[in-house]
Amino acid sequence: MHLPVAQTLFIGVSTKMYMGYARSLTWLEELVAEVDARPALAAGRVVPFVIPSFPVLPEAARLIAGTPMVLGAQNCGWSDGPWTGEVAPSMLSELGVGLVEIGHAERRRHFAEDEATIALKVGAAVDVGLTPLLCVGESELMAPDVAAETVYGQINAAVSGDWSLAGQLVVAYEPVWAIGAPEPASAEYVSRVAGHLRSGLARHGLGGIPIIYGGSAKPGLLPQLEAVSGLFLGRFAHDAANFGKVLDEALSFCTADALKTASKGH
């Protein structure tokens, strides 16, 4: 594995709606213990993040305070105002949220979120200082260069063609065809898509923005990937110990990469 220009790995997990309130808090305490057991995370080369359900956010912010963990939200509205049932990005910011997931395949498919809606949310999130975690991915298995072009188009739509805005994203690449499939996308396929995507983004000076992979990610995958900036984990990491295992892989790689870089300087 080779780190992209950003030289930072992001390791995160969302609970979706799999946990109740009490279980969520217990799990967060377990995650904090895993993070606290790894003081090397304080260096900032590996950034852990956690995305619980909306009602959990205030207590989650309290539980992870003072740790290197970044708090995320699973969605946001596109503004404050008369939008019954939505959550304004400004309120998320008040609660200590730093990252907000936008454009997940489930939102696109089951809640009819189109590119225009996603673009409104991305702009609103950035306006209040939140980092959009933009979820993108091709719907069908295709050649890696074609898949990358599809994803490139989704990013372009999400920022309404304003590539300066794209520099404020973390991109979560999740091939939709692999979600729930018997076998996840192969490391080679993911690496090739990410590589082609970086080449496209480099035309705008953005070849080094964070691109993380999500989809049946487990220990052993991260070291196999090229041009990828980390992992977005699912239910596998609802066991906090598994989250810790992936953090260890990320830390191990960053340590080895730092030593390699230092040796080249002598």
UniProtKB/TrEMBL annotation:
<protein>
    <recommendedName>
        <fullName>Triosephosphate isomerase</fullName>
        <ecNumber>5.3.1.1</ecNumber>
    </recommendedName>
</protein>
<dbReference type="GO" id="GO:0006096">
    <property type="term" value="P:glycolytic process"/>
</dbReference>
<comment type="subunit">
    <text>Homodimer.</text>
</comment>
<comment type="pathway">
    <text>Carbohydrate degradation; glycolysis; D-glyceraldehyde 3-phosphate from glycerone phosphate: step 1/1.</text>
</comment>
<dbReference type="GO" id="GO:0004807">
    <property type="term" value="F:triose-phosphate isomerase activity"/>
</dbReference>
<comment type="similarity">
    <text>Belongs to the triosephosphate isomerase family.</text>
</comment>
<dbReference type="GO" id="GO:0046166">
    <property type="term" value="P:glyceraldehyde-3-phosphate biosynthetic process"/>
</dbReference>
<dbReference type="GO" id="GO:0006094">
    <property type="term" value="P:gluconeogenesis"/>
</dbReference>
<dbReference type="InterPro" id="IPR013785">
    <property type="entry name" value="Aldolase_TIM"/>
</dbReference>
<comment type="pathway">
    <text>Carbohydrate biosynthesis; gluconeogenesis.</text>
</comment>
<dbReference type="InterPro" id="IPR035990">
    <property type="entry name" value="TIM_sf"/>
</dbReference>
<keyword id="KW-0413">Isomerase</keyword>
<keyword id="KW-0963">Cytoplasm</keyword>
<dbReference type="InterPro" id="IPR000652">
    <property type="entry name" value="Triosephosphate_isomerase"/>
</dbReference>
<dbReference type="GO" id="GO:0019563">
    <property type="term" value="P:glycerol catabolic process"/>
</dbReference>
<keyword id="KW-0324">Glycolysis</keyword>
<dbReference type="GO" id="GO:0005829">
    <property type="term" value="C:cytosol"/>
</dbReference>
<dbReference type="Pfam" id="PF00121">
    <property type="entry name" value="TIM"/>
</dbReference>
<keyword id="KW-0312">Gluconeogenesis</keyword>
